[in-house]
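Risk register update: the risk of archive-format incompatibility is retired. Evidence:
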Amino acid sequence: MTQKLDKLVYGILIGIILPLIGSFIFFGIKNSSFIWSSMLKLAQEYPSLYISYLKLGAILNLIPFFIFNNYYMQKAQRGIIFGTLFWVGVIIYFIYFGK
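Archived output:
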C-alpha cells in the first residue's frame, strides 16, 4: 500500500497545499473577526503581513515528512522538500521584492 503512495507528485502536492491551508488556519485563529474572503483580499493587498503566517504554515510540512519517513517513502519525502522549497522561494521573493 505504501508503494502506491510513494510518489514524488503526491509529496509535492502535499508540500504546497498543506502550508497554504495551515497559514489560512493560523490567520483565522489570530484574526477571528475577519471573514475568509476579506482575508484573501488582505493577503493580496499586503503580502508582507501574510508572510509570517505562511512561515508558520510551512512548518506544518514536518508532520507528513516524518510520517513518510516512518513508512520509508523517500520519493514522497523529496516531494515535501520540493514543496517546502517552493514556499521558501515565495517567502524570500516577498521579503526582498514585495511591497
